[in-house]
Records
---
Amino acid sequence: MSSEESPDVRKTFTFDINAKDSEGSFVNANGLSIYCKYWSTDLASPRALLFMSHGAAEHVGPYTQLAELLTDQNFFVFGHDHQGHGRSEGDRVHIDDFRHYSRDVFAHIDRIKMDYPSLPVYILGHSMGGAIAIISALDRPDFYKGVVLIAPVVTADQDLIGPCQEIFGTMVSYIFPQFPVFKLDSSAISRDPAVVEAYENDPLNYHGFLKAKWAICLNNAMKEIESKLATIEWPFLTIHGEKDTLVKPIASEKLHAQSSSADKTMTIYPGAFHQLHHEIEPDGSTARQELLQWLVNHEQ
């Protein structure tokens, strides 16, 4: 996002800072209303800002458990439903440019920083939200004090799109950008049946086929990230489930091995699935505590 874009977006931003668990919205550069969530508006003196970046086909609501752990440690935690997700406007899980996601993240954070100009900023991204976090940190490498990733989409060797599928998908995406290409397997998000059931019954999640243009945009983002891994110098934590079939752990492994960061940590959880923050116990609690402790340690 260019510096010229932010003021125009900020002018349309609205939110309630007086109520806990407040909601808000802003109109992005595509003219779409973006639903915002704030878990921390009653904190008198927050220690840092933390933006939650959710994954594909979901929304920010299910991050409340993790957000409340962080607000208890005095982090100002907020996020929004990405364009085309949850309560935000836009064709479902459709995008014309992957950086429209990161542009909106910057617009939102920049607005909150107007109220807290001296606070450091962290971003926490899961799955596609991890790719958004990484792309935004690549674009503005000094913007975040740290990046926290849960099963991030990093590399193009995920078997999502093969070479032939990529060629076909690129052609289709120009003609029929919302052509259905594949569905996510909800049974692969967690080993906890209650988590899977809640995911499947949540009307704010998108349960249809993912689209051709979105898939190509994501694939291109993965290629860009992988080509720039060696340029990454910012602090990060990445955690991944060993048995994650939606985003294979090679994503986190490559990020950790090839980045140039002096401050980097990776944990692979044996047997775990995609949503580590919603995994069976004790893995779920352990993963949430690891994220929390990493952030607290960086703010001591």
---
Amino acid sequence: MVRAQVFTVAKIFDGEIKDTDLSLQFEELAPLEDGEYLVECHYLSVDPFMRAYAGSYTIGQVMIGIQVAKIIESKNSIFPVGETIVGNLGWRTHSIVKPTDDCDIYILPDIGTLPLSAALGVIGATGISAYFGFLDICKPVEGDTVVVTGAAGAVGSIVGQIAKIKGCNVIGITGSEDKAHWLESLGFDYVINYKTTKNLAEDLKIGAPKGIDCYFDNVGGDMSTIIMSQMNVGGRVSVCGSISSYNARTPARALIVQPVIVGKQLSLQGFVRRQFKERWMVAIKQNLQWVQENKLKHRETITHGFENTLKALVGVMKGENVGKAVVRVKGSQIETESLDFNSALSKFKKFQGQ
């Protein structure tokens, strides 16, 4: 019988996440029944939306989250032993998946020598959000000026690079000089450190003297109002998140933005990754191709050990991660805390028959 480690909700998040908000439990898994399969988690995704969804949590539920896992036992011919799956199985080391489970599970296609963690980032949920959230909603055209907030985060860093691939002028907003330098190395045309700038509006005018055409919003708050006030008529805004407010105990107050939206005839749309589910593989294949062509680079902040998953989430909410934050649960290979895996591009394989 397999014994799983599981993080469950002990207390609904209130303000900043605390160690006592989640509880590490042990669970004995029953033998498999027909149609079921057992998976062992290798990597867990750590994302800001986990804090944003706190209002829907119930005490005792398994903490939500996407993982990359290996099938180690199976009574399901579609999901045989040895395959790698990606799915929303939560913070668990082992899971029994039933045929009726709705966990957005798919078998990971051939990704060559990329680490499995990439299936949570650039060729996973992060890359999917960046791809559709930017291309479908912002509808960029060559020459557009694009602003990305949370630009050194998992989604923002990919959005900025896709914008460059599409021939756009890209302005990234981030919160440290190290992150700013990294964004410059990715090809961002202008980077603003919002923690040190004396006047965000004036800095935006330097980076975008002809105005802003597209805005990819990960942050919300007053910063978004300032950015939208400098958008061109007919500008497009894609709202991915509002991390500036996730830890707030009371609703955040921001400058009124409706007059800007009306006056500049802006299109503003929020999105969730799941609305594009039928097209996920389109984004995965395209992002993988861009990685192989060295057009799309990716960086990870890795936390080792399942027991440290809550610590990793706290770090994400404080902006400590660069690029995608993941937890390595299974495996003995030693990796650096900040991993850039693009050095092996020449060895990457393309999808086989996908």
---
Amino acid sequence: MMPCTVTPVFEQFATSYDAATPIQSQVAEHLAQLIVHYHTGVTDICVVDVGCGTGKLTQAVMSKFLQNAALTSAQLYGVDTAASMLAIWQQRVAHLLSMPLSSTPVSSLPAPTMTLHSQALCANMADMALANQSADLVMSSFALHWTSPSVIAELGRIVKTKGQLHLAIPVAGSFYEVRLRFPKLPIFDFLPSHAWLAAIETLQQQRQGTLIYHTEQSFAFSYDNLKSLLKNLKQMGGAVSGKDSIDTATFRRYLQDQSPIGLDYQLLMIGLQL
């Protein structure tokens, strides 16, 4: 028997992660658009990116916020367990500091300035060293599926009253084409949407919050063949896992299939104001 398992090893694949994750980039951009839509007129903000990885979501959100002339200060926190990922997150944040603001000064008034502070926290997302109700915006994309819905309580703990929680979580229904064509290939068991929605509803009731939006959307990317897809999954640091092994003959037969294969994710998108 030949094992065919990829487990989360983000520490080793930080440098290849960005190039290997086009879908994650699409989702980060989509979630960022939702976030800034519900944060109009913000003057100062504390943002926590949970499971921030290399900073795709932080960059997508803050590059939009920085075009808002009203924003005068921001405190950014990136939370992840992989120090190598956090190092790239910090580089991205440093790049944000060099971005020009969009507003044009009127007559002789000085150009607007904005204060931006950041801190990388190497911590488990289920136990973050942040104070209760300390963040205006807590967000997470493509990270929570590595834990359980109980993490929602921890994320909600650090959201201020009238602050917001925005999430993009891969759920059951993901990897549909792979499952259909290669049924014996061990695949990560994504939780169904209702498991996450139940945790969100509990938090909403506890904090008397308001559900801003709740949608499910599919995002996909095509690869030349299964071998190419599996290589990509390995380079992103872990997206497929399995409790069982696949026999060598079956695995080799799968790899002989040279037809294109799509990698698809079903994403649960949630916005909650507390």
---
Amino acid sequence: MNSHITVTPLTRRIGAEVSGVDLTQPLSEEDKQGLFDALMQHQVIFLRDQKISHEQHREIGSIFSDLIIHPGAKGIDGYEDIVAIHADKDSKYIAGDNWHSDLSCNEIPPMGSMLYLHTLPQTGGDTLWSSMYAVYEALSPGMQQYLSTLQAEHDANHVYHAIYGDYGTAYPCNVHPVVRTHPVTGRKAIFVNESYTTKILGVSKNESDGILQMLYNFTKDPNFQVRFNWQPHSIAIWDNRCTQHFAVWDYFPDIRSGFRVTMGGEKPE
């Protein structure tokens, strides 16, 4: 790793703050590799005091993978792959105020996301991330083995019709394994979430509901989480393949505003 980059873990299981790099300047290959390695190790990384442009946002996101277009939220003018994240006194809802992995409903779910916030409330507006590695590893060997045989349905329609209406004909609905293997680290992670996952296939509704609720309860365990206190011009980059996150809406009617890009992934296995 480039000696200028400092990576400071925030908890034992997930999250690190990265310093010593200026994202408003061209990055060396060592800097890019350092950011990539930090993300693979810590699952979510944070950088502060980074007043980036839209072009720089796209360039940095592309370090990790090609950017994709959100199937529900329209991009901003001139940048179809950048989504505005904004809440104020007129908001009736906010993006992400429940536990989820971004767009797990896609046939090929994204590998990650990068959120840049430029305007923050004076207090509140934190985001939490939970490690799905840690959730998997907390389960008994027998439960790990059983869950590894199951698949679950991930459906966006009940989420996005309520928020965006009929943007297009139908939102994605796809089936993925309940346990996935990370393509870079080789570690296993739970891959169901309260927002998109509707059912586990091949079992009764009672069994499906019980398994999912157990896994959602593990996700909410603070022992598996990191909480980030945003400041103006902070950035979070996270790996959707092994984390879930939750945006806390405790700042109404204040403004919380920024932009997000989404990085393409691979079919879960």
